[in-house]
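quick q for whoever's on today - can somebody do inverse folding on this one?? i tried earlier but teh output was garbage lol. tokens:
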């Protein structure tokens, strides 16, 4: 039984986007494990409070993600 955990910032994705992520990740997993495991494939999307996540000693928040997205869109 595959169990896939995805951690995102609280409010980063809408409920509809989260549903689509769950569907898409399940589809990818089933492409490897076989269709018979679709009903046994668990996807957990956990929302982390903004600022409670860090990298390189620096706390990050949803604003930082949005800034990265904006920067990538410009390039």
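ok took a stab at it. sequence:
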């Amino acid at each position: 039984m595959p169990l896939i955990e995805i951690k995102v910032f609280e409010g980063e994705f809408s409920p509809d986007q989260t549903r689509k992520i769950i569907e898409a990740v399940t589809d990818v997993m089933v492409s490897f494990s076989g269709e018979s495991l679709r009903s046994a494939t668990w996807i957990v999307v956990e929302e982390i409070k903004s600022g409670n996540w860090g990298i390189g000693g620096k706390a990050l928040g949803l604003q930082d993600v949005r800034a990265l997205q904006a920067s990538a869109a410009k390039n």
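fwiw The chain has two helices and four strands. also The helical segments are 15-33, 62-74. so keep that in mind when u check it
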